[in-house]
Amino acid sequence: xxxxxxxxxxxxxxxxxxxxxxxxxxxxxxxxxxxxxxxxxxxxxxxxxxxxxxxxxxxxxxxxxxxxxxxxxxxxxxxxxxxxxxxxxxxxxxxxxxxxxxxxxxxxxxxxxxxxxxxxxxxxxxxx
Length: 128
Description:
The protein has helices spanning 2-7, 55-58, 82-93, 114-117, 120-126; strands at residues 19-23, 33-38, 41-42, 104-106. By secondary structure, it is an alpha+beta fold. It has a four-stranded mixed β-sheet with strand order 3-2-1-4. The longest helix is centred in the last third of the chain and has 12 residues, at 82-93.
């Protein structure tokens, strides 16, 4: 849902790491993502993935209101500010370099990958 929300109406603002998303902007909203790799492996609908995010997003900002529905016992709060974590990362990994990667790829001719098309979760997204 989060990934589909990101590509809905060509939205921007979600920064990710460790995933590759291919989407087709010619498809309807919540039916745009055609391929999703997590850690170089196809997304598995029955697998539970852990993610890190900010309190800003957990409060439903950036139109990610579905995050407010996550039960508190499923959340580990580290109480680390994003600013402090970025500073710590830069100090530990300097010099830092950047590169353009393929986290988000728009391909208006792409078709739904087998793992997405066979997923019951995917079917429920299309109904929203």
